[in-house]
Amino acid sequence: MAEKGKAASLLAAGSARSRVDRSFKRALLPLLSAASIEEIRKAFPSFSSDDQRLLQQLFIKVITSLHGHVEDVFESLCDEMKVGPVLDTVEQLVEEQSLDLVKSDNTNVLDIARDLSISKKNEIQHLKEVLEKAERHNLQIRARLELIKKGRQQSSVTEDALQKLMGEMQTHKTCSG
């Protein structure tokens, strides 16, 4: 996989420079295009037709020479400043940076998954603790209810005993009295 990337980089080496050269030439063409005979006639109406044709031919030669000279100077400056290797290095750095971002994004996804898993485990633990607390609370309530039931039973036994005692006392009163 890495060898394919290196091969692609080697094939792409110099392509940035050739794109710059093509762009420069495309930009230069409209600036250095030859003038038509009509444009020469409009620009120099007082000249004879022969002079206008000679002027157009001279203009074309000057433009052609200027065009070649500008291209030569541009190429010379690019070579002197090592534009090609610099552009290739920049392209390589941009490619590496974009690959680093993809790797970083994958790492971020893994970090997010890990953090989410930890968060869910913590939430489950919290819910277990809440459930245990609720169960303890329910046991306490049941214990209290049992005490209340026992208290009622004792109170009804006591009440029955009291009523029996009162009944005996009244019977004893009526018998003695």
Automatic annotation (TrEMBL):
The keyword Oxidoreductase does not apply. Residues 117-144 form a coiled coil. Its main location: nucleus. GO terms for biological process: cell division. It is found in: Chromosome, Centromere, Kinetochore; Nucleus. GO terms for cellular component: kinetochore; nucleus. InterPro entries: PMF1/Nnf1 (IPR007128). Keywords: Cell cycle, Cell division, Centromere, Chromosome, Coiled coil, Kinetochore, Mitosis, Nucleus. This is Uncharacterized protein. The lineage of its organism: Eukaryota, Viridiplantae, Streptophyta, Embryophyta, Tracheophyta.
